[in-house]
Write a structure and sequence with these properties.
Layout (H helix, E strand, L loop, with lengths): L7 E6 H7 L1 H10 L1 H19 L2 E6 L9 E4 L4 E5 L6 H11 L10 E5 L3 H9 L3 E3 L1 H18 L17 H11 L4
């Protein structure tokens, strides 16, 4: 779904999710924060595309002397590093406060994924929906299973010959080549 047509915007509190998902905590502890960030982004790429969400993953840059930096990784997924001295929580709060909430069937939805209780209350107060980091993990896992099932090969050939596992068109072309017709 094109970015501009997405009816759902998902804001993910990146470090909060990394601290909540066990495989991301393990990646952070063993390989560093950059590895955990990359694994989170990889997990969200297919999820965002499959769901048609415009997803922004927000990371604190409060201890880095850099301005706000946003990078679009795909048409559905962007990563945002906050401004110097700004937390992801305050960035998300400002985003929620300025999000155009219209009460109509065509209005966009805003979902914030975080397990921070104070953040949950704040974003719901602004009219956004809230999803815990564990709910997001379950949804990402379920979506991954659905896409694997959807793209699984229909039937494996029981024959030991490669020729028998080819589709009918490929078999016909090979037969013609064997006979010297093509």
């Amino acid at each position: 779904m094109p970015r501009s047509l997405s009816k759902v915007v998902l804001l993910v509190d990146g470090y909060n999710v990394i601290g909540s998902w066990s495989f991301l905590k393990e990646a952070r502890d063993q390989h560093g924060l950059e590895a955990a960030r990359q694994e989170l982004l990889e997990a969200l790429i297919n999820y965002s595309a499959f769901r048609g969400y415009k997803t922004d993953v927000v990371f604190d840059a409060q201890y880095q002397n850099t301005p706000t930096y946003r990078e679009a990784l795909t048409t559905n997924l962007s990563v945002c590093y906050t401004n110097f001295g700004q937390t992801a929580d305050s960035f998300i709060e400002k985003f929620c406060a300025s999000f155009p909430y219209r009460r109509s069937p065509k209005s966009k939805r805003l979902i914030v994924a975080t397990s921070d209780r104070a953040q949950q209350l704040t974003v719901v107060g602004y009219g956004a929906e809230w999803m815990s980091a564990q709910q997001l993990a379950s949804d990402v896992q379920f979506t991954a299973q659905r896409t694997r099932r959807k793209h699984r090969p229909q039937k494996q050939s029981s024959s030991r010959f490669l020729f028998n596992s080819l589709d009918a068109n490929a078999q016909e072309r090979l037969a013609q080549w064997r006979k010297g017709l093509k």
